[in-house]
Specification:
- This protein has about 475 residues and is α/β, with parallel strands linked by helices.
- Strand 10 and strand 11 form a beta hairpin.
- Helix 9 packs parallel to helix 10.
- The chain is globular, with a radius of gyration of 21 Å.
- Belongs to the glycosyl hydrolase 1 family.
C-alpha cells in the first residue's frame, strides 16, 4: 500500500536525464568529443550510441512525461555539442536543437531545469587538467554566459552536477577518466575549483540581471557511525566533512568552517595530500552564496562508517552482483554493510531515513538555504519485458514511495523543499555500468528504441493527477 497518495499544490514532480546518457548521436551535426567519447573508444566495454536516442526521440519522451503526470524535467546541455572546439565558434545546429527541446517541454507544460555540466567535460579540457586547471574555470564561465543569454526560455539553471561524484570518480575510484586512484590532492582540489566555478557562474548570472534562478547540485550521503566507539564517531565526522560538509559550506555559507577544515586536514595529512585555496577564491564563494536561488540535492543512499587506517581500496560493483563492492578510505573510514539495512543489486544501502536526516541537517546548519529540490532519487534494477510487454517494478515504486514520504515529512518540519525528480525518465546509458542498470519510468528496448511504460510510470501518473485536483 502506497504511503504517499497526494502531493502539495505547486510541487514539482519531475524526472531527470543527462545529455550524454540519453542523447546518443555523438557523431552527428558537428558535435565535438568529450572525455567519455575518447575514453570509451579506447577502454570501454559499452558504446554511448545510440543510448536512448533522445537527440531524435525527445518529442516522444516529453510527450510520455506529460501523459504520465510529470510537470518538470531535468536536462543537461552537452558542452561539446554547442562548442565542438572548446575555444572555437558555436555550433548553430546545436543551438537550434536545444531551443526546440526546451520549447517542446514548455509547450507540454513541463518546466525544464537545465544543468550546464553533468560529468561530461570536453576532451580538450580533460587534456589540459580538467577542473584542476583554473584556465578551464574561465572557459566554463564563458560557456555558461553564452547559455544564459542564448536560452532565455530557461528560468531554472544548475551549474555543475554532483561535484563529489565527478571528483571521486576521476581521482579516487578511477572509474571516470583520467582514471587516477586515490590521488586525494587532485580530488579535493577539483572539488574546490568546481565550487569556485559554480560561484563565478552564479555571480555572472546575477550580473546579467536575468529573471530566473540558479544553483548547483550536490550528491549528499548521510553518514552514521557504525558503533558508539569514539574512533567510529570521529571517522564518520571525517567522512561527512569530505563528502558533504566541505561542499555545503562552500556553496551555502560561502566559507569553509574551521571544524570542517580541521577534519579535512586530518584526511589530507593521512594521505600526504594538500589543498590550495587562493584568497580571491574565498571572496568569490562569499559573494555567490546569498545569490543561489535554489539548491539541488541528489540522494540515493547513506553510509555506515567505522575507523580505518589501512591502504585505500575501492572495489566497484559494475555488474550488479551483490556483495562485490568495498570502500576503504585511508584516514577517513570504511563503509560497513549492516544486516538490517537492505541493499540494491549494486550494494547501495536503502535507507530513506537518511534523506530526512540530511534535509533537517541542512535546515539546521545552513538556515539561509534557498528552495531545495530533490534533483535525483531512484533505484536501479535488472529488468526485462514480460510477454505482456510490462515491467513490474514494484520494488522501485516502494523505494520512491518511502523517499517521497521522507520529503513530505521534512516539509511538515519546515524544510523548504518544493520538488522531487526521479532518476530517471527513461532507461539510459550508465557511465560505468553500460545498459544493464535500469532506472527509468519507461523501459527502453535499446535494439528497437521502443518505449514501454513500467508499472512505476502508471503509479507516477496517479500521483501527478493529485497535483491537478
Amino acid at each position: 500500500m502506497a504511503r504517499v497518495k497526494t502531493l502539495p499544490k505547486g510541487f514539482y514532480l519531475g524526472a531527470a536525464t543527462a545529455a550524454y546518457q540519453v542523447e546518443g548521436a555523438t557523431q552527428e551535426d558537428g558535435r565535438g568529443q568529450n572525455m567519455w567519447d575518447v575514453y570509451l573508444a579506447k577502454h570501454g566495454q559499452y558504446s554511448p550510441d545510440p543510448a536512448s536516442d533522445f537527440y531524435h526521440r525527445y518529442p516522444e519522451d516529453i510527450a510520455l512525461a506529460k501523459e504520465f503526470g510529470l510537470n518538470a524535467i531535468r536536462l543537461s546541455i552537452s558542452w561539446v555539442r554547442l562548442f565542438p572546439k572548446i575555444d572555437g565558434p558555436v555550433n548553430e545546429s546545436a543551438v537550434a536543437y536545444y531551443h526546440d527541446l526546451f520549447k517542446t517541454c514548455l509547450d507540454y507544460g513541463i518546466t525544464p531545469f537545465v544543468a550546464l555540466h553533468h560529468f561530461d567535460s570536453p576532451q580538450e579540457m580533460l587534456e589540459e587538467g580538467d577542473w584542476l586547471n583554473r584556465k578551464n574555470i574561465d572557459r566554463f564561465i564563458k560557456y555558461a554566459k553564452f547559455c544564459f543569454l542564448t536560452f532565455p526560455e530557461i528560468k531554472n539553471w544548475f551549474t555543475i552536477n554532483e561535484l563529489i561524484s565527478l571528483a571521486s570518480g576521476q581521482y579516487l575510484g578511477g572509474q571516470f577518466p583520467p582514471n587516477h586512484h586515490f590521488n586525494v590532492s587532485e580530488a579535493i582540489q577539483a572539488e574546490h575549483n568546481m565550487l569556485v566555478a559554480h560561484a563565478r557562474a552564479v555571480i555572472a548570472y546575477h550580473d546579467l540581471n536575468l529573471p530566473g534562478r540558479i544553483g548547483c547540485i550536490h550528491a549528499l550521503k548521510t553518514g552514521y557511525p557504525n558503533s558508539n566507539r569514539i574512533e567510529d564517531i570521529q571517522a564518520c565526522k571525517r567522512y561527512d566533512a569530505y563528502n558533504n560538509r566541505f561542499l555545503l559550506d562552500g556553496t551555502l555559507l560561502g566559507e569553509y568552517q574551521s571544524e570542517t577544515m580541521q577534519l579535512l586536514q586530518e584526511v589530507l595529512q593521512a594521505n600526504d595530500a594538500s589543498l590550495t585555496i587562493l584568497p580571491e577564491d574565498l571572496a568569490i564563494l562569499k559573494k555567490a552564496a546569498p545569490l543561489n536561488g535554489m539548491f539541488g540535492m541528489n540522494y540515493y543512499r547513506s553510509e555506515f562508517v567505522r575507523e580505518y587506517h589501512g591502504e585505500s581500496i575501492d572495489q566497484f560493483n559494475s555488474t550488479g552482483k551483490k556483495g562485490t563492492s568495498a570502500f576503504k578510505f585511508k584516514g577517513v573510514g570504511e563503509f560497513v554493510k549492516r544486516p538490517e539495512v537492505p541493499t540494491t543489486d549494486w550494494d547501495w544501502n536503502i535507507y530513506p531515513r537518511g534523506l530526512f536526516d540530511m534535509l533537517m541537517r541542512i535546515k539546521r546548519d545552513y538556515p539561509t538555504v534557498p528552495t531545495i529540490f530533490l534533483t535525483e532519487n531512484g533505484m536501479a534494477l535488472k529488468e526485462q519485458l514480460n510477454k505482456e510487454k510490462i515491467v513490474d517494478d514494484s520494488r522501485r515504486i516502494d523505494f520512491i514511495d518511502q523517499h517521497l514520504e521522507q520529503v513530505l515529512k521534512a516539509r511538515q518540519a519546515g524544510v523548504n523543499i518544493q520538488g522531487y525528480f526521479v532518476w530517471s525518465l527513461q532507461d539510459q546509458f550508465s557511465w560505468a555500468n553500460g545498459y544493464n542498470k535500469r532506472y527509468g519510468l519507461f523501459y527502453v528496448d535499446f535494439e528497437t528504441q521502443k518505449r514501454y511504460p513500467k508499472k512505476s510510470a502508471y503509479w507516477f501518473k496517479q500521483l501527478g493527477a493529485s497535483l491537478e485536483e
